[in-house]
Amino acid sequence: MAAYILRRLLLLVPTLLGILLLNFVIVQAAPGGPVEQMIAQLEGFDVGATSRISGVNDADAQLNTLEFNEYKGSRALSPELIKLIEKQYGFDRPAPERFLKMVKDYITFDLGQSFYRTIEVTDLIMEKLPVSMSLGLWSTFLVYLISIPLGITKAIKHGTAFDGWSSLIITTGYAIPGFLFAMLLVILFAGGSYWQIFPLRGLTSDNFEQLSWAAQLSDYAWHMILPITALVIGSFATLTLLTRNAFLEEIHHQYTVTARSKGLTEQQVLFRHIFRNAMLLVISGLPAALLSILFTNSLLIEIIFSLDGLGLLGFEAVIQRDYPVVFGTLYVFTLLGLLIKLVGDITYVVIDPRIHFEARTTL
Q: How many CB atoms lie within 10 A of CB 52?
């Protein structure tokens, strides 16, 4: 197992480089980069834009003001000012050189500084991470807490009325996108058109710091109910059907017939024999499910409920062409995804010791 883990860790390096290179090429080829946006703002008399062109020294700062004032009437920028803008954003160097520098910095987790927020990308990610972690961990926990017992019950009661009407509910939940259900919750329970029961914005109230620990816990749960409900509704259907099908397949295997013939009760057959084999696929998918909820499904939920997390951060960075934030979050997401995939493979061995990755000759 140790040799397999070592090989997978070594494979992370070229995989990560390949993903970063592909996205670097795609993003660089996209029109409307930060240089173009800054030039458009300056030509449109956006005086605030000049404050973001911070040169290396005072001479550069003076050049900003002089060039802007000189061409304020004609809305034309001199080549010197354009070069200064390119230098400010690092576009005065060739693309291969910029990519190699980025990789070199990323090795030490130096993710650079945001173009528009004047803050280190690492600090920005750490600032937004608690929101996304709250959504991801609680949603994943509730999805598994609901889906596994429900899937097992559906498998045991296959073909009954319970299986029929529960399948109708699951299919409805699967068909409704999570963000659409979130909007429905806002309309019904967050003051949209009916009741003002839950807050619409934020993770905590404005007076959160002045509350007692019990009141803080209650306030936190009060804010999280609607977004977590929307995420759970959009995610539990797939896992429920996966659990049901996995148990149905195992129930009809020969070893269950043999176990029953030995006098074991249905409960003993289920939890001693069927459970471990059926849950292998379900539990091993837990890391991937967490990653999906954490970095994919939560984007629109964060926007709807004004939760300032990683999903919203990445979306805004792409819109603004804030390349350090785009590549920094991409780097973190990719690295976590590869590591979580490795954790998922290790989980197979934890659940079923009969699996040995050492016997595999290829990755």
A: 17
Q: Which of helix, strand or coil describes residue 113?
A: strand
- 8 Å CB contact between 253 and 246: no
Question: Buried b vs exposed e over 123-146: b needs ≥16 C-beta within 10 Å?
Answer: ebbeebbebbebbbebbbebbbee
Give the C-alpha distances (Å, rounded to integers) separating 191 from 183, 188, 223, 224, 227: 11, 7, 14, 16, 15
- Report the distance separating Cα 97 and Cα 101, nearest Å: 6
DSSP string, 187-237: HHHBSSSS-B-S-SS-SS-TTGGGS-HHHHHHHHHHHHHHHHHHHHHHHHH
Q: Report residue 339 as tokens.
A: 């590591």
In the DSSP assignment, the letter for residue 33 is -
Is residue 199 within 8 Å of 222, Cβ to Cβ? yes
How far apart, in whole angstroms, are the C-alpha atoms of residue 47 and residue 353?
Answer: 65
Whether the predicted model's global pTM rises above the 0.90 cut = no
pLDDT tens-place string over residues 266-314? 777 777 777 777 777 677 667 667 766 666 667 778 888 878 888 778 8
> Token match 């849950």: residue?
279
Sequence-distant (≥ 6) Cβ neighbours of residue 358 within 8 angstroms: 1, 3, 4
